[in-house]
Backbone:
């Protein structure tokens, strides 16, 4: 662990517009030393713009940016001492995987030699047999892993990751994201990690931030944001969400034999709940009628796609031996409705 414990990153009231479009709206954000923060949110929410501002590829219109406690608002990218992996990898076509790492480590004061550290990092990302390959000889996923290893090679205090595993197959993605998070934690490095994949965010991050329309709409520990999102945008960003468009009448929302008081609602409302908060009604328990359309598997669990009599679809774990076309009654875990 490092001695100085300045925040790895602090943004204060950062605003960025393109023409008349405000993409980040007076954003306040901090990443603690050694903290892994995942940024989630709908497309166009400003996630990549945020990373580009931190990297120094864009300059904010207003606001202030500190990196490791140092003023960095107008610092050029090369003076920021960051590691980054952007979606286009930005590799050098004439260099081998190993040379990519050794080049960025030149002149660095380190307890191990560049060759040793390069070999260790290539092992971490599973490229030990491709040390001599140039980008043109590597697949998309392998190139992405070279970019990852290079970002870690310089031992930056803050690593910026923009969809770093998007080109990888699901098995490799899961292994590598665990290995990279372990390495970041072992070495005490902070990361700002942009992703569209809620599972990835939930599995690697110490803290989640949800950006929507240029605003920070939610933040907190992953489990807390998943369980108690502050808004529908935030609930959606974490996935595994059922949404039913319903009508509140006489301050009550009804779904089959289930009903909820809705003192402030009149007219259209959205009832939202996670897939796992739907279960089969037992005995005489009140519920709502559905038909099983199909089943599928998610995170190793058998899930059903059900259709309500009103025509809407919802997804839920499938615990009984239902076959497509069978009818059943479902109910909801009331404390987990949004
Ligand atoms: N250089 C630019 N010039 C003009 N508009 C831009 C520029 N870069 C981004 N934008 C706009 O800013 C908004 C936010 O873009 P950004 O790429 O930050 O979103 P995002 O959350 O990363 O989206 P995605 O999840 O689709 O990658 C979008 O509406 C985009 O069109």
Residues:
């Amino acid at each position: 662990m490092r001695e100085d414990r300045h925040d790895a990153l602090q943004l204060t009231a950062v605003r960025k517009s393109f023409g008349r479009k405000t993409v980040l709206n007076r954003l306040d954000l901090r990443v603690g030393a050694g903290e892994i923060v995942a940024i989630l949110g709908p497309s166009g929410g400003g996630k990549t713009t945020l990373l580009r501002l931190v990297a120094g590829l864009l300059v904010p219109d207003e606001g202030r940016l500190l990196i490791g406690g140092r003023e960095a608002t107008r610092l050029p990218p090369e003076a920021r001492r960051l590691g980054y992996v952007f979606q286009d990898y930005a590799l050098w076509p004439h260099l081998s995987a190993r040379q990519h790492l050794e080049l960025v480590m030149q002149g660095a004061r380190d307890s191990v030699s560049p060759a040793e550290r390069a070999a260790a990092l290539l092992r971490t990302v599973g490229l030990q047999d491709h040390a001599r390959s140039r980008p043109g000889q590597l697949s998309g996923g392998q190139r992405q892993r070279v970019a990852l290893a290079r970002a870690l090679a310089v031992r930056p205090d803050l690593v910026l990751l923009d969809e770093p595993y998007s080109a990888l197959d699901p098995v490799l993605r899961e292994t590598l994201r665990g290995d990279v998070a372990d390495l970041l934690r072992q070495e005490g490095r902070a990361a700002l990690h942009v992703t569209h994949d809620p599972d990835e965010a939930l599995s690697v991050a110490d803290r989640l931030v949800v950006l929507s329309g240029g605003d920070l709409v939610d933040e907190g520990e992953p489990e807390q944001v998943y369980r108690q999102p502050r808004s529908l945008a935030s609930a959606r960003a974490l996935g595994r969400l059922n949404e039913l468009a319903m009508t509140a009448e006489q301050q009550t929302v009804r779904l089959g034999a289930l009903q909820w008081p809705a003192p402030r609602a009149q007219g259209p409302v959205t009832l939202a709940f996670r897939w796992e908060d739907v279960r089969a009604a037992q005995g005489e328990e009140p519920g709502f009628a559905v038909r099983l359309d199909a089943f599928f598997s998610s995170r190793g669990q058998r899930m059903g796609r059900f259709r309500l009599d009103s025509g809407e679809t919802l997804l839920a774990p499938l615990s009984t031996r239902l076959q497509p076309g069978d009818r059943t009654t479902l109910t909801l875990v009331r404390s987990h409705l949004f």
About this structure: The helical segments are 47-55, 97-105, 114-124, 140-153, 170-186, 198-204, 222-227, 232-237. The radius of gyration is 24 Å. Residues 18, 23, 41, 43-49 surround adenosine-5'-triphosphate (CB under 6 Å). Residues 240-336 form a domain with the OB fold (Dihydrolipoamide Acetyltransferase, E2P) fold (CATH 2.40.50.140).
